[in-house]
Structures are given as C-alpha cells and as structure tokens.
C-alpha cells in the first residue's frame, strides 16, 4: 500500500497526518522534497512522533521554506519528475508532499 499525503500550503497538517498514518499502518515514510527547516525536518518529526520502520532519505533538501518549485528556483536547482522514484519497500509507504 502506498499513500500520498498532500495539502495546499505549508503548516496545514501534512506531517501530522503522515505521522498518524505511519504509526497506524506501521509504515515507512518518505518526503521527496524538504524545503526549509533543515535543522528539524519533517522526517525528524515523523521519527520522533511515529517511530516508522524506515525513513527514506529526501531526494532534495532545499534551504527556503516555500513550495518546492519556488525553493528550488531560489537554490538554483531544477527539479524534474524523472528525478524521483518511489523507494523500494515491502512495507506500506506514506509519501508526504
């Protein structure tokens, strides 16, 4: 089972919902793009709140706390869909947008 958690903005509860799903399903977690908060990332929060079996590393870690496309522009990176592949796992997987 693979679930994608998305929301229309920052601070709308995606990480909280992801933590609940990870804990309830004993799932792995993956946040493909972390934008901002690099000292205490969403992956760090999930690790402390839900104790997932595995946290898969982010594909991109961007400095600016903004939407991924805007943060990438500021960081002078180009993000392409072809840069991403779901992590291999036999567990349920929660992906946070």
What's a concise summary of this model?
With 97 residues, the chain is α/β, with parallel strands linked by helices. 29% of the residues lie in helices and 20% in strands.
The chain-level structural class is alpha/beta
Largest sheet: 4 strands, parallel
Taking pLDDT < 50 over at least 5 consecutive residues as the criterion, the unreliable ranges are none
**Averaged pLDDT:** 94
Topology pattern, helix = H, strand = E: EHEEHEEHE
Give, in spatial order, the strands making up the sheet with the most strands. 1-6-2-4
Protein architecture, described:
By secondary structure, the chain is an alpha/beta fold. It is built from 3 helices and 6 strands, in the order βαββαββαβ. 29% of the residues lie in helices and 20% in strands. α1 crosses α2. The longest helix is centred in the first third of the chain and has 12 residues. The two termini are 17 Å apart. The mean pLDDT is 94.
Secondary structure elements and their pairing?
Elements: E1 2-5, H1 14-25, E2 28-30, E3 33-35, H2 42-50, E4 55-56, E5 60-62, H3 68-74, E6 93-96
Parallel strand pairs: 1-6, 2-4, 2-6, 3-5
Which characteristics define this entry?
four-stranded parallel sheet; 29% helix; globular; 20% strand; alpha/beta; single chain; two-stranded parallel ribbon; 97 residues
């Amino acid at each position: 089972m693979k679930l994608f958690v998305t929301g229309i903005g920052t601070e709308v509860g995606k990480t909280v919902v992801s933590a609940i799903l990870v804990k309830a399903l004993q799932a792995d977690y993956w946040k493909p793009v972390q934008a901002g908060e690099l000292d205490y990332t969403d992956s760090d929060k999930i690790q402390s709140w839900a104790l997932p079996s595995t946290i898969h590393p982010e594909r991109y870690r961007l400095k600016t706390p903004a939407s991924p496309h805007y943060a990438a522009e500021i960081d002078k990176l180009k993000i392409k869909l072809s840069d991403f592949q779901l992590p291999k796992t036999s567990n349920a997987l929660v992906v946070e947008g």
